[in-house]
Amino acid sequence: MIQIFSPTIRRKEMDSVLTCMVDEKIGPGEINEKFVSEIKAFSDCAGAVIFRNATTALNRALKALLIPEGSSIALSALCPRWQKIAVEEAGFVPIFADIDENTACISAKTLSSCVENGAKAIIVSEPFGQIPEDIEDIVSLGIPVIEDISESAGGTLNEKKAGSFGSFAIWGFEANDIITTGGGAALCFPEKQKWEAFLPLFRKTLKSDILPDLNCALGLTALKEWRKNEEIRRSIATVYRCAILQSRRHKIFSRATDNDFSVCSFPIVISDGVKEVLSFLDRKEIGSKLAFSDTAIADIAEDENTVENLSVATSLFSRTILVPLYPRLRSQQIETISKVLAALP
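Above: the chain sequence. Below: its structure as tokens.
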């Protein structure tokens, strides 16, 4: 069976972590600071803090916005489930926007009703490396925007990097994100003014909330290897796209040719017979799964009142799958997967 995900940890990453252990640099320290510097250079942000998990990073971002407790926060119906939970645990009320069927991202159009209903901030998910092509219009809605660039980091839209559009950016480093430290997340500040305003709150942060050097050592090396890994992911994605176009039965999300989006994974929108397709891939020993199985809509799907205006998200939730795409795939495995994709039922 070809596994569906791989964090792609090579000898360089292993050596980096081992050196950290030998030097007994376990807790937050110099390597964390070095990782912060590399993140700032990579994403062109003015400042960053790396927390132990994305929930903490989002909690701090919401606090920094000084939004009254109990306020509504707009989210994509297909946002990662942890965002919904984090918003609720921080004392806010999540309200959900439908998505664009061509990109799986929210848009200014789908967010308009959330803003009309009193949303005080927007969290923009950027799944599979996609950046909403109208994100400038989203920012223009007049309320703070927090970008989640866990799967889009390194990509650009109109020559601006992912994470540079909103007030803050959350960059998760979980096992299946575009860069992994084995856990944790950075809270990034595109503007110097917002970074300086955040510093008093950061100084109150417990050291136990900051990502340890042991994890940062892994992330530091992975970040340096990003370009190499990204080129491999893009070449694999090109092969898969050709296979799907050959099959002419199923769809892939559109990616504007004049923008430089990252490739984090390979989603396929199945026209019909999702269970049959998943079973077919399993028989061919190719790992696959529903792409949005761990998203907010999985929690609210049974609430008819909530999902009434989320028709596109509901449809994509049940029809979008992922297949293996990561740098450690061998040429023979890529060839096998592409042939199977071209023959999908």
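DSSP finds 14 helices and twelve strands in the chain.
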